[in-house]
Specification:
about 210 residues, alpha+beta, homodimer, about 10% strand
């Protein structure tokens, strides 16, 4: 059987990545799609566009709208929401921990816990202690993981992952990419991305049936 | 009975306004919501943000994504799509004709026809002849309407409508505003906006029941 695969590109500082992260597990399970969590950094991508912070800070009307829109979305999903301070959070350390955990069974839980800490509790995810707490709750050796996250290898790994995102045409988060090269952007496109990944497999299966 | 009202803010040059315009009539009818078509110009709003053209032209990755995303959306909706040339189209004359027709029964049909001309047939909506053709098909005296569209009064009317959009926090198109001050942005938010407007009435009705 062909694997139904979807890459979920997340940035820990990204607001709309929060509801997307909370929703993707169930949506993918129901569609029989395997999701790969791929943390990356928007900072270098925004910088290449001439932005030195979140566009929600640069463009005031867009920022005001986003906070209200996110509030309505979270209300409908019954997700708690506090506004991170500072915004955007410095997501570098969390992204390094996550990228180093690409093959760990706890990666998805770690990502969800980071979003909850940031957007449901208002913790500052830039703080090593916050991430250590999350890792500890997952039963992971936090000191070892936090040290490894600062190694040259992991720094390079995150840099490469961010460059790959950029090569795939990613310019915001959350984003989703399929094996046949489709890109979907935004929490709004989660369902479309999952459906596309699921049909992709269907097409492959039909091709193999007709042989 | 309280009127269920929703303002639909459209820019004729805006790509995602095309599927939104094609969808809003049915969605609003099914929800018992009355939609007011409110043409405005994004140009002055973009200019205030330091942009001299569409952000889809300024930010290449975002532009490439938008065209593919719009293609997928239109395919799913069975809407034809051609890429306007030039993009964005100069929508000034069309917006002036539409703003002057705020109280005309043919306003909605005119708006839909402009989008079809631009995105389904690839006509240049900056051309008076294209708009004259549309007005003629609607049984409207086109020469009179096109002349009136260039009057100082109508120019001022469109300027005021654009300023109102900006005051409401609008920064892109399509946008939707409700009577209780909610703003929804994007073709993706059409259903949420219609549902909100419809519930608004429900709340008003419940308040009046409990008197």
């Amino acid at each position: 059987m062909t694997a139904r695969a979807l890459d979920f590109w997340l940035e820990f500082a990204s607001t709309y990545s929060y509801p997307a992260a909370m929703r993707i597990g169930r949506a993918a399970r129901e569609a029989g799609v395997a999701v790969r969590f791929r943390p990356f950094l928007l900072g270098p991508i925004f910088k290449a566009q001439g932005w030195d912070t979140s566009p929600f800070n640069i463009y005031a009307a867009k920022g005001r709208y986003m906070w209200r829109d996110l509030e309505r979305l979270c209300q409908a999903l019954e997700l708690p929401l506090v506004r991170p301070d500072p915004f955007p959070q410095n997501s570098l350390l969390a992204a390094r921990v996550a990228v180093a955990a690409a093959n760990e069974p706890w990666l998805e839980d770690f990502c969800l816990s980071v979003y909850r800490a940031e957007f449901a509790r208002g913790d500052n995810i830039a703080e090593a202690a916050v991430l250590a707490g999350i890792l500890g709750e997952l039963g992971v050796a936090s000191a070892k993981r936090l040290a490894a996250a600062q190694s040259p290898e992991v720094k390079e790994q995150l840099k490469l992952q961010t460059e790959e995102a950029q090569r795939l045409g990613i310019f915001g988060a959350p984003s989703f990419t399929t094996e046949d090269g489709e890109l979907f952007w935004g929490n709004d496109r989660l369902e479309a991305a999952v459906a596309w990944a699921s049909r992709q497999d269907g097409a492959a299966a039909r091709r193999s049936d007709s042989r």
